[in-house]
Amino acid sequence: MKTERQSRIIELIRENDIDTQEMLAEMLEKDGFNVTQATVSRDIRELKVTKVGIQGGGFKYAVMTNGSSETAKRMNRVFKEGVLSIDYAQNILVIKTIQGMAMGVAAAIDAMDKAEIMGTIAGDDTIFCVVKSEAKAIKLVERLKDDIM
Length: 149
Prior knowledge:
By secondary structure, this protein is an alpha+beta fold. It folds into two domains: about 1-65, Arc Repressor Mutant, subunit A; about 80-149, 2-Layer Sandwich (Gyrase A, domain 2). It has helices spanning about 1-15, 20-30, 35-45, 70-80, 100-110, 135-149; strands spanning about 50-55, 60-65, 85-90, 90-95, 115-120, 125-130. Strands 3-4-6-5 form a four-stranded antiparallel sheet. A two-stranded antiparallel sheet has the order 1-2. It is globular and about 50 Å long.
């Protein structure tokens, strides 16, 4: 069921301009998949789906393929253009993004594959990023801030 649902998610994203998880969930429901927003959110993360800019303004979900240099460039651009501020509290980074960009920026952070990052959680415009220690969080904040400058 999960494989079928995720395959359908990829098809829907490629065929439609979907800009919210709610819209995606509604389309899945119409196709007979009983999903919650949490399920859709997990699927988006597992599939490495991110938001990309569209002509005329706004954003839509897009499926990113692993391994290509073009993908790496896009992820880097999503990170640079989406982040407004980065701070930390102990071993948790708090990253503020442009509204609606947190999921895409979190995917970009995950794609960076930094060993000190244990995981990320994204909302609409805020990301919590758990780091292994406060000392590593401090260094990571400095490096990430350098990346957006």
